[in-house]
Structures are given as C-alpha cells and as structure tokens.
Amino acid sequence: MPGIHHVTGIAGNPARNLEFYTRTLGLRLVKRTVNFDDPGTYHFYFGDERGSPGSILTFFPWEHAAPGRDGTGVTHTVAFRVPEGAISAWVQRLAQRGVKHAAPGLCFGQPVLEFADPDGMHLALIGVAGAEREPVWSGGGVAADQAIRGLEGVTLVLEAASQTAAVLTGLLGFQEEAREGDRVRYRAHGGNGGVVTIREAVDLPAARMGRGSVHHVAFCARDDREQADMSRKLVSDYHLHPTGQKDRQYFRSIYFREPGGVLFEIATLEPGFAIDEPAADLGKTLKLPPFLEPRRGYLESILPRLEPMP
Fold first, then answer.
1. Which of 92, 94, 99 shows the shortest CA–CA distance to 118?
2. 231 burial class (0-12, 13-18, 19+ CB within 10 angstroms)?
3. What are the structural domain ranges in the chain?
4. Which of 5, 62, 110, 173 shows a CA-CA span of 20 to 30 A to 151?
5. What is the pLDDT of residues 218-268, one digit of tens each?
6. The domain at 4-302 falls in which architecture?
C-alpha cells in the first residue's frame, strides 16, 4: 500500500517528549529503543495500538540540539487525523495543558487546528469525516470520539515543487488531488498517512535542521522486492542515489534526498513492531537490536532515566 510509513523528528529532553505525545496527545509509545546510528540516544516511536504504518511519529531526542529554523527544503508540518467534530474538544484540551495553538480554521475544506510541541515542531489536527469509525488506541486518556487515529500527512515547503511532485506521483503512489493558494495536495489513499501537501515558497531562506525539525519522512514498500524496484527506479528515472538497505529491526530502509532537499526514506511493511515483544507490552521496556545487546549495560547507564510506562 502506498503512503507514509512514518515520520521522524528531532526533540530535546526525552522525558518531556514522552510526556507530551503520550499524555497530551494520547498516542501509544509503540517502541522504546535507541538510534541505531547513535545508540547513546533514545529512539521513541509513537502511534496507534499496533504501531500500524501511517500512524507512527518517531523522535531522536538529542537533548543539546540547537533549535531548527523554518525555511525551504523541509517538512514543515506533521498532521494527525481526528474525527471531524473533535476539533473544539482539542482546542479545550490543548488550552488546559498550556499548549499554544492557532484559531481553528479550514484547509482544503477540512477543519484544522495548528499548534506546536514543546520543541517547536509544527503540528496540526485535521478533522476527517468518518474517522470516528476507524480503529483507535483506547489507552491514551483521550475519549474515543476525539482521539487521534494516525497521521493524516505532512506539508513540505520547497523552493520549487515540480521535481518533488514527479517523485511523489511517479514513484511513491500519490496523485494530485487539489490546489489551494500556494499549496498542492497529493493523496495516495484515504487512510492514515495518505496525504502530502507541497507549499512552494520562493522567497524564504533555506531551512536549518535542529530541535523541533522533522528529520525525514518514510514511505511504504510492501517488501524487499518492491523496495529494490523503487531503488532502481530512483536511479534510472530520477537520477537520485539512494543508500543501500539498512536493517532497522522493525522494517528495512533505504534513504535518499529528494530534489527539493528533504530526506526521504522507503521502509518495508515487514516485520513490524511485535517482533521482539508482545503487542500488549509494546513500549514498556528498552528494546535493542541483537548487535547492541552486548552493550546493554553501558547504554542503560548513559541513557536518561525515564518513568516506567503504565
């Protein structure tokens, strides 16, 4: 199935990040592991009950990272889908928790509530008709008729959009759906992670990645074969040069920089997050890949201590 697999951002304090996404937004901590390329740093995965592709927002909490800067060549906003009538309840919920937010508005005819997380990452809730009938994580302290269902999508801010749009439509399974002002919306499907919006902004400086920035956006490949086919097509049709496959334990990935400068990943749907712990216990303990297990004692001694998950 085409669409977004997950989105990964850069956070600061890990305990604050964990608190906000589980307690304020009511997401499930699906996996507590480490950055495989920088194992002295946590890697948190937040999502729905099963950690379904299209529901996952992950973070590298680098405590001392400098703040990012908005501009072009960046994923500017991460949007979640909620039931269409839930926006007013979320206005109250965010206000009660001291989360600054914009006034509710409309985008492509849908209700939208924009706000930021404690590190400044741009977030939005999109009211989606019929979302109340979609599966929901019931353990996050948010009423079922209001709770987040998963990712709606992302908004990219680019200096020029046409080449990125070609990758989205020719390789990643999206189709142009609508235009509104300086925004063009592309859709892969109607469920979680099905939307990418491009905003073309020619007068902005280049963005600087840092705390509060999106690090990369990952798109789905059914399996290794489809991923390999996409990798070959990136080279032959788009003259882009993806990395070799990297084993991320819960999926296998390749990475490339799309023409507008945003880091894209293509991740397999298999094997999933229940490979190393029961689905009922997802996120409760630190999980390490086999190559890091010999270093567990050392890593646990240097990683910040966190409150146990209920």
1. 99
2. buried
3. 4-302
4. 62
5. 999 999 999 999 999 999 999 999 999 999 999 999 999 999 999 999 999
6. Roll (3.10)
